[in-house]
Design goal:
The protein is an all-alpha fold. The protein has two domains: 58 residues; 82 residues, F1F0 ATP synthase subunit C (F1FO ATP Synthase, Up-down Bundle), CATH 1.20.20.10. It contains four helices and no strands. Helix 3 packs antiparallel against helix 4. The chain is flat.
Amino acid sequence: MLDYLLLFIPAAFLVISVLVAIKSFEKGKNAKRTVITQILSFCAVFAFCMVCPIVAHAADATAAAQAASNATGLGYIAAGIATGLSCIGGGIAVGGSAPAAIGATSEDPKNFGKSIIFVALGEGCALYGMLISIMIISSL
């Protein structure tokens, strides 16, 4: 029962923080402050999840099983961080290069082949992060 409660608290906090951010942005609050508040709420949920491990009772009492359980958990965290950061970087790259590619193509349609390469390079970063995550998870 406690496990379900510990799963519900971070999820509810994230949903509530997103709803509050949307409402405050609709009311005309500062967008920068709203984004900073959202980032801080995600950091708080991350800290809560790291401090209160949900499946702590599932580990065996032996030290070897505990070490293997910790290594598996940290491997999943590493895979998530690799995917998350690479997707954020890819999104930033595509967000800057795609409008420039559209503008270059609208001026001269012959530039489409050259400009789409830069968009694909940005997406490649996200794909490399996903491949690294798959390699990490398959080695666990």
